[in-house]
Design a protein that fits this description.
The structure is a single chain. With 236 residues, the chain is of the alpha/beta class. The chain is 34% helix and 22% strand. It has six helices and ten strands, in the order H-E-H-E-E-H-E-E-H-E-E-H-E-H-E-E. The chain has helices spanning 23-41, 56-64, 77-90, 135-148, 169-181, 190-200; strands at residues 45-50, 68-71, 73-74, 99-100, 121-127, 149-158, 160-161, 188-189, 202-210, 214-221. The strands form three sheets. It has a six-stranded mixed sheet, with helices on both faces. Strand 9 (202-210) and strand 10 form a beta hairpin. The chain binds S-adenosylmethionine. Residues 4-5, 22, 24-25, 50-54, 57, 74-76, 79, 101-104, 127-129, 132-133, 137 line the site of S-adenosylmethionine (SAM). S-adenosylmethionine (SAM) binds at residues 4-5, 22, 24-25, 50-54, 57, 74-76, 79, 101-104, 127-129, 132-133, 137.
Length: 236
């Protein structure tokens, strides 16, 4: 069964420079990248990661997509310090300093180069966060994506239920462990997230199966309704 980490560095202490190591990163980053690579290869601009944890995904993906500017974020000071340490260690020109973004804040936004509101994003990424946070984090993530994405996508990785059913016994056991730890946590249902997305003006554009019964969900802005659509396709 999968284990969950609330705050990295409790079991394995950081390196002397502050870099933390997440075990799951080593297992999942190649598969996650395979779900992002084609879309990102055609984008320009900024990618914002929410709940970046140690910072290892941000470093690895910034290295693989040097044409994009990567903006990591998290809530814990120890994680922000780790991301900063990984950034110093990697020395990548396209990886920016971490910023504190708390998805429990419905008005969360991001900052770019001293501007209070970073503006439009090419993509957003959120890995293994939604099951280990209250439902309002899912709500605020999707609402934020609707505010900040134009042609871009929000990619969300993790375990998910489908139509009220767990996709594997191990995910059901993981869900029970999460809910026992905190009743506000739990494996989210794809159907509920799709409803949230629709309410926010987004659609579920893609669902990519991942190893170990995980998924990558890709949300996109719903296409604007044609002015003529309400009158039917043959209206003049
Ligand atoms: C299981 S860890 C995953 C970290 C990283 N994305 C990874 O996959 O290695 C969950 C992350 O969500 C972050 N997190 C929890 N609550 C959050 C919130 N309200 N806003 C933003 N991030 C949050 C935690 O600090 C932690 O880094």
């Amino acid at each position: 069964m999968a284990k969950f980490v609330v705050e990295f560095g409790k079991a394995v202490p950081p390196a002397p420079d502050g870099r933390l190591d997440g075990a799951a990163f080593h297992r999942n980053h190649d598969a996650i990248w395979s779900a992002l690579a084609d879309f990102l290869s055609e984008q320009t601009g900024d990618v914002l990661e929410l709940g970046s944890g140690t910072g290892q995904h941000a470093v690895e993906f910034a290295r693989r997509a040097p044409h994009l500017v990567w903006w990591p974020s998290d809530i814990y000071p120890s994680h922000l310090a780790s991301i900063a340490a990984w950034r110093r260690h990697a020395g990548l020109a396209n990886l920016r300093a971490p910023q504190r973004i708390d998805l429990t804040d419905p008005d969360w936004t991001w900052a770019a180069d001293g501007q209070k509101d970073g503006g439009e994003l090419a993509a957003m990424l959120c890995i293994n966060v939604l099951h280990i946070s209250p439902w309002r984090v899912s709500q605020n993530l999707l609402a934020g994506a609707a505010r900040l994405l134009r042609g871009g996508r929000l990619f969300v990785y993790g375990p998910f239920m489908r139509d009220g059913q767990h996709t594997a016994p191990s995910n059901a056991a993981f869900d029970a462990t999460l809910r026992a730890e905190n009743p506000d946590w739990g494996v989210r249902d794809l159907r509920d997230l799709t409803t949230l997305a629709g309410d926010a003006g987004l659609t579920l554009a893609d669902v990519v199966p991942m190893p170990a019964n995980n998924l990558v969900l890709a949300f996109a802005r719903a296409p604007a309704k044609s002015i003529n659509a309400k009158n039917g396709p043959h209206a003049t």
